[in-house]
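We now fix the convention by which a protein and its fold are recorded. Think of the row as the fold of the chain written in a discrete alphabet. Here is one such record, which you should read through line by line.
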Amino acid sequence: MNNLAENIGFTYSDYITWNDKIRWEIIDGEAYAMAAPSPRHQRISGEIFRQLANYLRGKPCEVFAAPLDVRLAADWFDNTVVQPDIIVICDNSVIDDKSIKGVPDFVIEILSPYNPKRDTVAKRRRYEQAGVKEYWIVDPYNQTVRVYILKGGVYGKEKIYGNGDIIQVHTLPGCSINMAEVFDSAYTETNPETEEPDPETEIKYNLISALKNKYVTKEQILKIMDETDSEGQ
């Protein structure tokens, strides 16, 4: 029989000791490296945040943007720590000085070109299990939004929206997000639709993930990354 600690994997206690040169998330005890967001990603996040913040002004719910630790399993193993791009919290009792220690009402993730399956598969499953009432996946490159609503403990059939749609937020009656404004803010003359992911960032991200899968320690990964950066200067 496996040791219980081995089954739990990494926890929040481990997470807070790691060097912050690399951003990490933990999903069910498994650690994942995070790539730095692009300007396009940040434009989209900023516009969605602006619309939500305007609606929520003077209301009990709050909207937060990454980076902010969300500890979905804080009351159990505390082995899931994620940093959603945008979250809405309507129960301020889950907010402590360092993190969200509980389940958000509404989560939005903006897809990264480096590992989209984390948001579409692993995180979607974990948010569903945790009881996140509404989950949106924003795809900057295809200009689409997948919307999932929790019903009876499971996400119903996804609804897909595009540029030009106005999406009603299920968990915030009366609130809507104008996706034309969101996507139009991201595609400027200096940030055209043909923009490709930065190859150096992609190589580093893939290297970190590959090393982790070979059970290299985080300290060894950081040392390798420091040496790589020094050689490139």
